[in-house]
Amino acid sequence: MGESAWTLFCNDSNCSKETGKTCSSGFSSILNPYSCLNHAFIISVDMLLLLVASLIIVCKLSSKKISTNSQSQRISSLKILSAVYNGILSVVYLALGIWTIFQKLDMDHTVLPMDGWLVLLLQGLSWLGLAISVSMKQLNLPCTIAVKSCSIFAFLHAVFLCISSLLEAIADSTVPMKIILDVSSFPGSILFLSCAFRGYGLKDINPNGDFDACYAPLQGEEHDSTDETSFNHNITPFANAGVLSKMSFWWLNPLLHKGKEKILENKDIPTLQTSCRAKACYLKYMDQLSEQKRRKSSGSTSMLSIIVNSHWKAMLTAGFFALIKVLTLSTGPLFLRGFIAVVQGKEAFKYEAYVLTLGLLIAKCLESLSERQWFFITRMVGLQLRSMLSAAVYQKQLQLSNAAKLTHSAGEIVSYVTVDAYRIGEFPYWFHQIWATSLQFCLALFLVYSSVELATFAALAAIILIVVASYPLTKSQLKYYKKIMLAQDKRLKAIAEALTNMKVLKLHAWETHFKNVVESLRKDEFKWISGILSQRGYQMVLFWSSPIIVPAVTFWTCYLLGVPLNASNVFTFLASLRIVQDPVRLIPDIVQAFIGAKVSLDRIVEFLEAPELGNRKAEQKCYDKNFDHSVLIKCNEISWDINPSSKPALREIDFVVKPGEKIAICGEVGSGKSTLLAAALGEVPKYNGTEYVMRALFAKTVLLVTHQVDFLPAFDSVLLMSGGEIVEAGTYDQLLASCEKFQALVNAHNDTVGSEMDISRSSNGRAMASKDTIDNVHVKEDLIMANGEQLIKQEERETGDTGFKPYLQYLRHHKGFLYFTLAILLHVVFIIGQLIQSYWLASEIQSSQVSKRELLTVFTVIGCSLSIFLLLRSFYVVLLGCGASESIFSTLLKSLFKAPMSFYDSTPVGRILSRVSIDLSTIDLEMAFKLSIAVGTTMNTYFSFIILAVLAWPVAFVIIPMIYLTIILQRHYYASAKELMRINGTRKSSVASHLAESIAGAMTIRAFGGKDRFFSKNMDLIDANASPDFYNFSANEWLIQRLEILCAIVLSSSALSMTLIPLGSSASGLIGMALSYGLSLNVFLVFSVKYQCFLSNDIVSVERLEQYMHIPSEAPEVIEANRPPHDWPCVGKVDIRNLKVRYRPNAPLVLRGISCIFEGGNPLEQHTDSEIWEVLEKCLLREAVQAKEGGLNSFVVQDGSNWSTGQRKLVEFDEPMKLMNKKGSLFGQLVQEYWSRSS
């Protein structure tokens, strides 16, 4: 057996076809670059170097911290030179090795002996691994020692290669490519040495083993014992896992085991390692941003370059694993050709079938390990990227200027986090698919050329035409994505305003009108949704048809060119095509991910570049109690609008407040009181003068804007404002004695509230009475809240195994069952048609009774028929997606607008916004296609199992236990995965709720200096949301890896069985068909499980939407059994008698027997502009509206924050008869006008 293995490695007849020398032993043979001993020695060294380099790279993934010093983050020019030089050298080695394989196949029809091409491939891989490991920074001490040792070893190895190659070149007077590469490795090894010993000083080494290229500790974090996030004992096992544990995802077993035993709760999920937390990601972003601003004098920054600089090492490592995956995957057709040769009796040695089986098993296991690490690393990068952007958006909204709020509403900002940041976070997962698919194509073309020769160009032309035909679809999708994001922003803004003000809508019975407005915006959005789904449907048809179109074109070209078609070259070609067909089918998803990420990144960048509050710098930190004043404002003009031609809100302000003073600000509505207070807080963007505010307002300095004059005697000074100016200032008694305007204001207030208090009472007495009253009310409210139940409850989520319930809930919308059933039936027909097509080719390819023209005609007709079924399947999938999207939104909107106020009192707006943004977006664009693809790829996988079992019946004894193990593994996985996905959904709502609440209270947060505290809370919520997501995608890789290993065992067993079982005259064709399916079994399985996981993630969105689609409704608008007469209402008024209201069943009464009458009001949007101007004039708001540039079309920010507090609350209140009799009462004038018009 050992002799046969040596023969497999190197024929004992000669050492090389180039030299013809025999394989002699001794030192001279080792120095001969073409001898077997030389190749064996080099391969051994290369394998050792590759192993150590791989361990260094994998160890780097377990890192935790790096230094924050920006200098240490720079990449030296020496390392760049080393990476480029040795990277190119390794690629040339790999290319030469692959070319040697195809040359041997073309000339000898075998890849044996292996030493000639194996030495080239391993030399290329080892050099590539060294280039990556040496370029890394911030390694721990053991890894640094390993890098230096490897560089020394590589240098000695390169010296040996260089000397032996030069001696051979001098002896033969020839310089082949291998000699050039071996000599070129010497300067590359010098670069390795230089980088290893110059690039790793003591400052770059973390002696504690805490290392990571993605983390920089916050200042003082190591010593902050109060940071429970940093010091949580339940930290992820991944942080301390070993290399083998990380490669096999063994570290995840405890959590999955716990999820199998019980329903996972929040406390069961360990926290993220430090490098993945939002603090570390945000600090890394700020470091990169500062570095860019330092380098660029223009001040412009590139978010893309920040992302690349932050994560290039991790992405490069993932690319290394992607390369290994592509290379191992491409060996499949070579194994297929070898097995066919064995069946045809052309084996190279006695036990070739067993060696091929073992090689196939190893290749498939290596393919699985490399792909899992590839996907896991890119998912980690995406999670860090999402956390970084979410934190950056939150921090930005805390300092967003008032002008920027006009273009970025609260709903849009929430969408930036819940939709855009998530889309960008998904892109790293797809990034390497772009070049990996292209490389798979190139390698497949080499294999195809060895099979069908010049017909390869026909296959290439067909592929190019398919890609070119998809370009208009891609361009349209980019346009549609931009349109849909704009339409979504408009809809979210309208929904956010409606939800925030739902009490007002219900009070005025405006729900129907606002619901219609939202529905009209949704119609515009749905137009683009249906467009995107249609474009994806066309792309699906195009790329799923490629495995049908390309073989037909290629085989007909072979027929016309006279290229012989046999089982070996036909099924090698089909196997080469089949291993890339699923990556080709992914092209629409890759395009969608790229377009979605680009659009989302542009939106977030535009937001992050929006103007900020410009006067916050005026706020000073000062804790000197001897300081003269705490507030100083001396300005000619203060304006909310930075436009020079705009009318100022305040003029000639000279305002000084001493530490500890209590200042009251009063005046009529619109006089500038709120603006003055905002100016003191640094919120007003335009100043013409000096403004100064101390950070520490000593001894409780108080500025109070109020209409309640009862409080004024308690203040040290009172400012009276009018027309944007401070007209009077003094104590309460001084103003009351000397200022007629102030006397009128006090008297008007006393008349309004029916006060009989004596104006001449002392200020202290009045103040104390007011304070006692307030304290009594406060205590009473506290008691009520203490005895009552909690108003805002924890968000509910589904628990346990819900089975097919959420899928049935999705399919019940708008003929979903019908469309889904038709789509699946058409897919079954497509699979069966492919099976018939392959069987026809396998059984008749060697038959002399069927001509090649007849063979190809039937093959092509079947293929064209399958394309029609693909088109119909995509058509029904698009109908399923559009119908479900429209129906779900309609039901959800109706439920929300019909919900009682008790629902809104106990439900934060952020919970609803997260559902109508990210969850609804998932239903709109993802659910239908992922459902159909998941079911379709699962059916493909099981059909492949059936084919293998039929053609090689002994394999059934392996397949049946494997299917059983597959079911066990999937149940073990789903027990935890479902809960992780649900917890992720509720925590995502917490992030959205906190963001929405912070946007609404941004000015208050800034006023109390709470930005840091709220930002820290937000980052904790981001981490809490990221944790279940991290474990979710880790569990996906855990499951897929184990299933792939099982598939590799099945495939290897099948291949061996079919070579040992006689299959008759069509044996070569049938084994070619079976192995072409079997080689793609891993691909089918990966895509099946991957889309099942995607689908499991997305179906949680259906569960979350269903929770709000069936809210107990308030009383219906129309009760058919209690309809009023047809002429009702004859008088427009509402008569309320003894009304008693409580917010919830167990809550106390808030209205206790109210009886009153409301006369008829005006309907919404049914009056002309002149009538509206008339009403505004009566409300004393005409001048304020006319002063704005847009007049009646002036923009009103959500919550009306660009209007003064008084203007928003302009109202008269008292008993109707008193208001009627009050002189100058607006209410009395309106009533008189009403009766005059009625008569």
TrEMBL record:
<feature type="transmembrane region" description="Helical">
    <location>
        <begin position="817"/>
        <end position="842"/>
    </location>
</feature>
<keyword id="KW-1133">Transmembrane helix</keyword>
<dbReference type="InterPro" id="IPR044746">
    <property type="entry name" value="ABCC_6TM_D1"/>
</dbReference>
<dbReference type="InterPro" id="IPR011527">
    <property type="entry name" value="ABC1_TM_dom"/>
</dbReference>
<feature type="transmembrane region" description="Helical">
    <location>
        <begin position="541"/>
        <end position="562"/>
    </location>
</feature>
<feature type="transmembrane region" description="Helical">
    <location>
        <begin position="145"/>
        <end position="167"/>
    </location>
</feature>
<feature type="transmembrane region" description="Helical">
    <location>
        <begin position="429"/>
        <end position="448"/>
    </location>
</feature>
<keyword id="KW-0812">Transmembrane</keyword>
<feature type="transmembrane region" description="Helical">
    <location>
        <begin position="454"/>
        <end position="473"/>
    </location>
</feature>
<dbReference type="InterPro" id="IPR036640">
    <property type="entry name" value="ABC1_TM_sf"/>
</dbReference>
<feature type="domain" description="ABC transmembrane type-1">
    <location>
        <begin position="316"/>
        <end position="596"/>
    </location>
</feature>
<dbReference type="InterPro" id="IPR027417">
    <property type="entry name" value="P-loop_NTPase"/>
</dbReference>
<feature type="domain" description="ABC transmembrane type-1">
    <location>
        <begin position="830"/>
        <end position="1081"/>
    </location>
</feature>
<feature type="transmembrane region" description="Helical">
    <location>
        <begin position="40"/>
        <end position="59"/>
    </location>
</feature>
<keyword id="KW-0067">ATP-binding</keyword>
<keyword id="KW-1278">Translocase</keyword>
<feature type="domain" description="ABC transporter">
    <location>
        <begin position="633"/>
        <end position="858"/>
    </location>
</feature>
<feature type="transmembrane region" description="Helical">
    <location>
        <begin position="314"/>
        <end position="336"/>
    </location>
</feature>
<dbReference type="Pfam" id="PF24358">
    <property type="entry name" value="ABCC10_N"/>
</dbReference>
<feature type="transmembrane region" description="Helical">
    <location>
        <begin position="1043"/>
        <end position="1061"/>
    </location>
</feature>
<dbReference type="InterPro" id="IPR056228">
    <property type="entry name" value="ABCC10-like_N"/>
</dbReference>
<feature type="transmembrane region" description="Helical">
    <location>
        <begin position="80"/>
        <end position="102"/>
    </location>
</feature>
<dbReference type="InterPro" id="IPR044726">
    <property type="entry name" value="ABCC_6TM_D2"/>
</dbReference>
<dbReference type="Pfam" id="PF00664">
    <property type="entry name" value="ABC_membrane"/>
</dbReference>
<protein>
    <submittedName>
        <fullName>Uncharacterized protein</fullName>
    </submittedName>
</protein>
<feature type="transmembrane region" description="Helical">
    <location>
        <begin position="854"/>
        <end position="876"/>
    </location>
</feature>
<keyword id="KW-0813">Transport</keyword>
<feature type="transmembrane region" description="Helical">
    <location>
        <begin position="114"/>
        <end position="133"/>
    </location>
</feature>
<dbReference type="Pfam" id="PF00005">
    <property type="entry name" value="ABC_tran"/>
</dbReference>
<feature type="transmembrane region" description="Helical">
    <location>
        <begin position="1067"/>
        <end position="1087"/>
    </location>
</feature>
<keyword id="KW-0547">Nucleotide-binding</keyword>
<keyword id="KW-0472">Membrane</keyword>
<dbReference type="InterPro" id="IPR050173">
    <property type="entry name" value="ABC_transporter_C-like"/>
</dbReference>
<feature type="transmembrane region" description="Helical">
    <location>
        <begin position="942"/>
        <end position="969"/>
    </location>
</feature>
<dbReference type="InterPro" id="IPR003439">
    <property type="entry name" value="ABC_transporter-like_ATP-bd"/>
</dbReference>
